[in-house]
Amino acid sequence: MRSNAFVYLSFCLAILFGCNSGDQKKAAKDGVDSTQIFSPDKVREVTGTGKVEPENGIVALAATSAGVVVKQFKSRGDSVRKGEPILQLDQVLEQSRFEQSTSQLATQRSEIEMAREAAREAEVTYRYNQEQLATARNLLQKNAETQQNVDDLEQTLKKSEIELANRQVAIRRAQQRLREIQKQGQVSKEEKNLKMLRAPEDGVILDLFPTVGSAIKQYETYADFAAKGPVVVRAEVDELFANKIKTGQKAVIRLVGRTDTLATGTIQFVSPYLKKKSLFQEQASDLEDRRVREIRVTIDQSDRLLLNTKVECIISL
Hints:
Layout: H1 2-29, E1 45-54, E2 58-62, E3 67-72, E4 79-80, E5 85-89, H2 92-141, H3 147-194, E6 196-198, E7 203-208, E8 215-216, E9 221-227, E10 231-238, E11 250-255, E12 261-270, E13 275-276, E14 291-299, E15 310-316
Antiparallel strand pairs: 1-10, 1-15, 2-9, 3-5, 3-8, 4-7, 5-6, 7-9, 10-14, 11-12, 11-15, 12-14, 13-14
Helix pairs in contact: 2-3
């Protein structure tokens, strides 16, 4: 029995090695090295996976101030111009401060005018006392005035001089106070303006998160925004073909798993380094031990492309 089993096993091994030798001979006959059937150098097309984005990316708009939404001017999908209001937050406190500063400005301007009037009166008094002293000194030289009267007039002139200087200082202080109030008013106005959340530039509101009555924290994201302009495809190419990608190469854009062409484009940017996969990775466990090279493709005509669509870029080498 053992002898028969040994004979059978030897027969099977002979058949196996014979088939393998035949395949290698056939490959050699056809001019193909069976150990190098696949070679990256012979690839004529490379596929990168990416998504459709605005040229400057999708921007998360952050609230410039905290507050409760009291009015909504725009909705998701609306086109906006730069500076157009999107949401208004409550501004009762800021409005009160602004009105208070406006009232203080009017009061301070009146005080400055009063200080100037007092200074004009002090200057008139000072000029009058100067004339009186000059007259008295002339009379003293002619023995028509007493020295005591001249001394008294000199003291009076010094007092009026000090009074004039004090009035001028009062004007400068009042003017300084006016500038402080003006700055406070500017701050109050800016704080009030921060309660109006506006579009940073022309574009489209992709998503709007708060509703009227909801509260927003400062710097909290309240909308996703796409600036007006062309769209691009940001894609990633496997490290195996990374050194074959260059700017200016043509690409065909398709939906993943489809063969029909959505658009065509040209590579405008190629990352100078390899990095970990970042697109379409939602969890840390999704990451693979592979490196990719990021590219950006400008689209010739983007009418059929929706933002954030997952696509394939077929790049011609």
